[in-house]
Amino acid sequence: MKLATVKENRESLLVVQHDLGLISVQKAIEEVGSFDLLDIPQTIMDLVEAGSDGVEKLRTYIEALTVENESSYLLSENEVEWEPCILRPQKIICVGLNYRKHADETKLPYPEYPILFNKYANALTGHNQVISIPRETKKVDYEVELAIIIGKEAKDVPEEKALDYVFGYCSGNDLSARDLQMRTPQWMLGKTSDGFCPIGPFAVTADEIPDPNHLRLTTKVNGELRQDSNTSDMIFNCKELIAYISKHMTLYPGDLILTGTPSGVILGYPEDKQQYLQPGDEVIVEVEKLGALRNTFV
To answer: Which of 168, 176, 77, 174 is nearest to 128 (CA)?
Structure first.
């Protein structure tokens, strides 16, 4: 399933993508009832915590609905206010220099271990949202990334079982203020400004993505293709990242892992050709099968 969260009257609604639009789970239950299906999750975080059983209950419910254009629980993708597809993760863990060609373009050696840093919840924003460029930076860069959504508590997970702990995946943009990032050896300051972690539009359940390490990633800036690669270029694949991180900290349902960006970032251009993001720019990042995430800058 493709799932999202949208805001209506200050309330966050879990929605499921349908051929005719977005089905609001809460509105559908209020209008037609639950068909004797008990405990259908009605928020994205309840669904993540409910795991595969919750997903199957929701899938069964959606398939039982009679959906028509005039259904009151059907929302238009063009009219909703999108929120981050995952709300209130306990952790947002990011991976640096995890694509071979990206390391090559920045003239840095391949890391022996995953380079980890963090973002915070203030950085989360959704599809079609406007992002303010901080006054303190002149060098905001884009980074398309595959984001892993953890589905159950994970500690010391072996690689061969790591994907069993995944709820799903989403497109993400690890926005980076390069001048702030490089000010000190620690990258955090350049990574977690307000709105610097847009994710979505959809969280796609893991059953639809059997191999997350063969997905195309792209970035377009004002319609110009800037990044075009594949997750197969990762230095540490998704299994390895989950296993490695879980050895050092417990992962919980809803935690996000942004798995790194491929080549094509502004930082990788020759210095005289580096044109960083400006007010008015539109950036669309997309991971194959997960949807295109669009943001504009002011």
So the answer is: 77
Q: What is the DSSP secondary-structure string of 53-107? A: HHHHHHHHHHHHS---TT-TTEE-TTTSEE--SS-S-S-EEEEES-BHHHHHHTT
Interatomic CA distance for residues 73 and 13, integer angstroms = 11
- Among residues 83, 120, 132, which one has the least CA distance to residue 256? 120
Task: Compute the distance between CA of residue 153 and CA of residue 138 in angstroms, rounded to an integer.
Answer: 40
Closest CA to 95 of 124, 70, 62, 119: 119
d(CA 46, CA 157): 23
DSSP 52: H
Is residue 281 within 8 A of residue 220, CB to CB? The reply is: no
Could you give the CA distance from residue 198 to residue 191 in angstroms, rounded to a whole number? 12
The 3-state DSSP class for residue 162 equals helix
Task: Compute how many other C-beta atoms are within 10 angstroms of the C-beta atom of residue 272.
Answer: 5
Encode pLDDT of 224-278 as tens digits.
999 999 999 999 999 999 999 999 999 999 999 999 999 999 999 999 999 999 9
Neighbours of 70 (CB within 10 A): 7
C-beta separation of 260 from 234 below 8 A: yes
pLDDT over 90 for what percent of the chain? Answer: 95
Output the pLDDT for position 36.
Answer: 84
What are the DSSP calls for 217-230, one per residue?
EEEEETTEEEEEEE
Is the separation of the CB atoms in 171 and 291 below 8 Å?
yes
Sign of CA dihedral 180, 255, 242, 16: negative
